[in-house]
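Suppose you are handed a protein chain with no further information: no name, no annotation, nothing but its sequence. What can you learn? This example shows the usual starting point.
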Amino acid sequence: IHHQSLNTTHHNSTVLRQNHVRASDSHVAVSPRRSSGFTAAHHNSATNGLKNSSVNRSSDRNVRITNNWRGSRFSGHQYSAFRNYHRHYHNRNWYRNNHIVIVFFGGGGYYWNSGYWYPAWGYNPGYSYGYDGPIYGYNNLSPDQVVVNVQSQLQRDGYYSGPIDGDLGPMTRQAIANFQTDRGLAVTSAVDQPTLSSLGLV
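A reasonable first move is to predict its three-dimensional structure. Written in structure tokens, the prediction is:
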């Protein structure tokens, strides 16, 4: 099967009508066999994070990475994408032939697979992702827009005082960890489904 990658655009509210994808300041590459639309958010930022990591809250509420995704707290299906994640490198043709939706922002691409956004290592040779792991997706939002929504809700809840920029950096991960600790969730410092549910986003 031949999979064609559509042209991408930086213009706001431009609709790639063939595949019902709206791109606004992010790049979107879509295979024609795609069946449902995804909205690419307008935040042009790279996400940052740590591979296969979790955090414990210290007395000063600073994030400390300690978890390797093993243990009873992470045994459920809701954490399987994180437990099973391994970095793989492929060229852009492989991604285009094997994944229906790929979005780009901040110089890197993310591909959609089974409810999660994953970093497309190797699509843009030389690009290094700050956050090396899956991001739970919902409502057809791009990964940076998911992070924006998490940051905004954490800010409203008093956990986050940094910029609302779609960057899953240390401040955002610390805020997520503190929220998870206070809510009795498995402390992942990642955008997982239980955390989004507790935040009222899904």
